[in-house]
Specification:
193 residues, mainly beta, two-stranded antiparallel ribbon, 14 strands
């Protein structure tokens, strides 16, 4: 009797622990495209933009393009690319969308391709999925739910502290609301705050 009660209590406790972890966004298939691991991260107070990240696999025989989408927390979504140009990190909108070739997998991630939530109505809240859509030129619109990682996370799994210097960083006095989208940083400086 006691061992049965212990087993039940143990399983109940395990169930509570499992429920305390955030759910992972489900993969979505639309046409020949598979959309995996959509995520975003908490933004500083007053931020007007946020990045969205996802992996897209084209299992078809025709090229498609990610051209935009929607998000419940933003006015609209743009598709962006960050890249080095002459030793300077630049971000630009991909006006013709992001090409997804047949058989290719494209990862949207910090420091590379990403969707930009423009005109934030409210910031992403950790543990509360952000509902929205991704719009493709051929496949159409897919409903997605972005998992929300902590502020500064480098992946959906959490924050990468590896190269950060926390000794002098004070975000409380920073104004992130007027962020320049034509970010120009000298090479080697994009990881320093």
């Amino acid at each position: 009797m006691k061992s049965g009660l212990r087993t039940m209590l143990g399983l109940a406790g395990l169930g509570l622990v499992a429920c305390s972890f955030p759910a992972t966004a489900a993969d979505v298939t639309i046409g020949d495209l598979v959309i995996s691991h959509p995520w975003t991260r908490v933004t500083p107070p007053g931020a007007k933009v946020a990045g969205g990240y996802v992996t897209i696999t084209n299992k078809g025989k025709a090229t498609d393009h990610l051209v935009g989408g929607t998000a419940a927390i933003a006015d609209h979504i743009e598709v962006h690319e960050m890249s080095m140009d002459g030793g300077v990190m630049k971000m630009r909108e991909l006006k013709d969308g992001l090409e997804i070739k047949p058989g290719a997998t494209v990862e949207l991630k910090p420091g590379g391709y990403h969707v930009m939530f423009m005109g934030l109505k409210s910031g992403p809240v950790e543990g509360t999925p952000v509902k929205g859509t991704l719009k493709f030129e051929k496949a159409g619109e897919a409903e997605v739910a972005y998992d929300v990682a902590p502020l500064g996370a480098k992946s959906a799994g959490g924050m990468d502290h590896g190269t950060m210097n926390h000794g002098t960083m004070d975000h409380s006095k920073m104004d992130h609301g007027n962020m320049n989208h034509d970010m120009k940083m000298p090479e080697g400086q994009h990881g320093k705050h």
